[in-house]
Design brief:
heterodimer; A: alpha+beta; 4-stranded antiparallel sheet; B: alpha/beta; 6-stranded parallel sheet; 20 strands; about 40% helix; about 15% strand; binds thiamine diphosphate; binds magnesium ion
Chain lengths: ~160, ~575
């Protein structure tokens, strides 16, 4: 099953590679991994999207907790949560027909056109991973030049929070 | 007054109460070596290879419970320690490894003798640090020792660039350390402990299965109390030997691949199992599909990730073995009348029947020296009270099977990583920590060569280790697998061109002895053990056809042990023929 694990860790050089190393050494999946400092500059927050049986996920969280740099973590997918991913897509838009189709789709998916040239449009869209996937599917009639995805960020709904 | 970073490092060791460190100098570590030279509180033991330094520190730590400390230079100094660090990591041994590093300004430039020490050691340390500021040295060292020693212990690497060891700072060693990201839980949840007690008391066919965590966690006393209260059949992993005295009537011997028949059968047939400081390693469980099909498990471990990793656990208890057992014993002692003694008696009858098979019996001989016999003689002549280190192979298993340990921290071997070359340098650490005790390194002709250079260190520091080489002219354990599973195709397991170990030992300045006949074993060993102030290398020519029995082959379960020829079922005999 797909899981989103949020990790608070010391903002130290090497902390990211310890996490990445753990996943590769133990053969765990990583679908995406994002990391950036938090409002407390001594802490980073990492969001890992992974998948596995319940037993594997249990081991993943235990092994992550065992890393000396990890302060706290939660499995967002265990409760109500919001996930967002930023996607940038550059497509060919060299004639009216193409431009109209792209504009129509980006409207439906509530994205934006953020750069326009004679031959291309660059699109921005945020949403869950499945929405981003659906948007790419919808673009299948259009010639895609480049896709950049940020990977997932997530946060618990309501009072549920991950704090040091 | 300000002092150099190098002096700070050494002061930290002094304030940490470190008496011995094991090391080897080189460019990036020279300031630190200079600081060592200027004092005599911390004694530096100069090894002959950095791998030796790590194993020696490891042996020191295993036999004392104190952290082992290593000092090496950058680059090849560090890469030579990897095997030793990984060995300590797999067996949860507290160790601090201080590594010189190229000057800060050169890091990342492929400078002379530069390796990414933090990166290369990352997968085999509990934690590591690169010190970037001279003012951080003391707090980093404090954290390093704290992390190495607390929770589930393990090796910690501290990488110190050379320029930082030259810079100056004020020194003060922190009294305590608090890390928000690292707070191991030692107590054990009281509710879980009660649940564990409930399950234990409800058992009809219980087994107490203990491991290295009991030794490392200094919980032998509490374990003995538990066994004394319950009188349940008890078994131990390779790493846990000595925690329960081998002579204890409830002790069934070691379990696992070369464990006793009664231990493995009891593991298979039990209805309740309590695992204490043991991690269900594959060498212990055999095929997991066939593992103890009807059991309900209580597991005590300081490391949550060890619980439920390989097998399903009904009552997990995260905590320090000694603290949890203390609480458990307290609760148990008031509820002993809940035990179904008649069921337990019936279970004991069954267990004793398995025991009566005497699965460790071997065929004695007047013609050729049986390795088991040598270990038994060593046991007799040392009153079972020696510190035994070993390497890896058949000799290791025979040492574990026939040297019956009565106390913890006496059996020093590389269980998790299975590192050949461990025995001799580990014995150095043990002997340094226990100068008046008998330290025997039970080794094999292939293993001993892997760190043979340390014989030189032994001479320099007058370490009177007894090296007992069970010389079968083979990588016996490899040969055994090839005999069983590869139709006797002995691919590269014959030790051609072995040295003359007697003259080799003599050329290192030690005493060498060779024993070739069974009737000479006892006298030779006695003579060797009587030489209290000399290292004696006893090269014993053993039966090269001997195999380690009993055995659980790969893919088999605890109830499918292969017994020694003549002892097993007809079907086993046919399978092996
Ligand atoms: C460093 C290392 N390399 C290889 C092995 C694989 N191995 C396990 S036992 C063994 C043979 C050991 O031979 P010896 O030391 O003579 O012991 P014996 O089995 O003959 O008693 C080997 C090669 C190992 N454990 N460690
Ligand atoms: Mg051999």
């Amino acid at each position: 099953m797909r899981r989103i694990i949020s990790v608070l860790l010391e903002n130290e050089a090497g902390a990211l590679s310890r996490v990445a190393g753990l996943f590769s050494a133990r053969g765990y999946n990583i679908e995406s991994l994002t990391v950036a400092p938090t409002d407390d500059p001594s802490l980073s927050r990492m969001t890992i999207v992974t998948s596995g049986t319940d037993a594997i996920i249990e081991q993943i969280t235990k092994q992550l907790n065992k890393l000396v740099d990890v302060v706290k973590l939660i499995d967002l997918t265990e409760g109500k949560h919001i996930e967002r991913e930023l996607m940038l897509v550059k497509v060919t838009a060299s004639n009216n027909e193409q431009r109209e189709e792209v504009a129509r789709l980006i409207g439906i998916f509530r994205g934006r056109i953020i750069d326009v040239t004679e031959l291309t449009y660059t699109l921005e869209m945020t949403g869950s991973t499945s929405k981003a996937d659906a948007f790419l599917d919808a673009l299948s009639q259009v010639e895609i030049i480049e896709v950049v995805r940020s990977g997932v960020s997530g946060i618990g709904r309501g009072k549920r929070a991950l704090k040091a | 007054m300000t002092i150099t970073g190098a002096d700070v490092l050494v002061r930290c060791l002094q304030d940490e109460g470190i008496e011995h460190i094991f090391g080897y100098p080189g460019g990036a570590a020279l300031h630190i070596y200079d600081a060592i030279y200027k004092q005599d509180q911390v004694k530096h033991i100069l090894v002959r290879h950095e791998q030796g330094a790590t194993h020696a520190a490891d042996g020191y730590a295993r036999s004392t419970g104190k952290p082992g400390v290593v000092l090496v230079t950058s680059g090849p100094g560090v890469t030579n320690t990897i095997t030793g660090i990984a060995t300590a990591y797999m067996d949860s041994i507290p160790m601090v490894v201080i590594c010189g590093q190229v000057p800060s300004g050169l890091i990342g430039d492929d400078a002379f003798q530069e390796v990414d020490t933090v990166g290369i050691t990352c997968p085999c340390v509990k934690h590591n640090f690169l010190v970037k500021d001279v003012n951080d040295i003391a707090s980093t060292m404090k954290k390093a020792f704290h992390i190495a020693m607390s929770g589930r212990p393990g090796p910690v690497v501290v990488d110190v660039p050379k320029d930082i060891t030259a810079e100056k700072t004020d020194y003060s060693y922190p009294e305590s350390v608090i890390m928000r990201s690292y707070q191991p839980n030692t107590k054990g949840n009281p509710k879980q402990i009660t649940k564990g007690v409930d399950l234990l008391l409800s058992a009809k066919r219980p087994i107490i299965y203990t491991g290295g965590g009991v030794v490392i966690g200094d919980a032998s006393e509490q374990l003995r109390e538990l066994v004394g209260l319950l009188n349940y059949p008890s078994t131990s992993t390779l790493m846990g030997l000595g925690a329960i005295p081998a002579s204890h009537p409830d002790f069934l011997g070691m379990l696992g691949m070369h464990g006793t028949y009664e231990s493995n059968m009891a593991m298979y047939e039990c209805d309740v199992m309590i695992a204490i400081g043991a991690r269900f390693d594959d060498r212990v469980t055999g095929d997991l599909e066939k593992f103890s099909p009807n059991t309900r498990i209580v597991q005590i471990d300081i490391d949550p990730s060890s619980i439920g990793k390989n097998v399903k656990v009904e009552v997990p208890i995260v905590g320090d073995c000694s603290e949890v057992l203390t609480a458990m014993n307290k609760e148990l002692s008031g509820r002993l009348d809940e035990i179904d003694r008649s069921a337990i008696n019936r279970w004991w009858e069954q267990v004793n029947q398995w025991r009566s098979l005497d699965s460790l019996a071997y065929n004695e001989s007047d013609e050729i020296i049986k390795p088991q016999f040598v270990v038994q003689k060593a046991l007799e002549l040392t009153d079972g009270d020696a510190y035994i280190t070993s390497d890896v192979g058949q000799h290791q298993m025979w040492a574990a099977q026939y040297y019956t340990f009565e106390k913890p921290r006496r059996w020093i071997n590389s269980g998790g990583l299975g590192t050949m070359g461990f025995g001799l340098p580990a014995a150095m650490g043990v002997q340094l920590a226990h100068p008046d005790e008998t330290v025997v390194c039970i080794t094999g002709d292939a293993s001993i060569i892997m760190c043979i250079q340390e014989l030189s260190t032994c001479l320099q520091y007058g370490l009177p280790i007894k090296v007992l080489n069970l010389n079968n002219r083979y990588m016996g354990m490899v040969r055994q697998w090839q005999e069983f599973f590869y139709d006797r195709r002995y691919s590269h397991s014959y030790m051609d061109a072995l040295p003359d170990f007697v003259s080799l030992a003599e050329s290192f300045g030690h005493i060498g002895m060779r024993v070739e006949k069974p009737e000479d074993v006892e006298a030779a060993l006695k003579e060797a053990f009587d030489m209290k102030d000399r290292l004696v290398f006893i090269d014993v020519m053993t039966d090269h056809t001997e195999n380690v029995y009993p055995m659980i082959a790969a893919g088999k379960g605890h109830n499918e042990m292969v017994m020694k020829p003549g002892q097993g079922s007809d079907q086993q005999e046919r399978e092996l023929a």
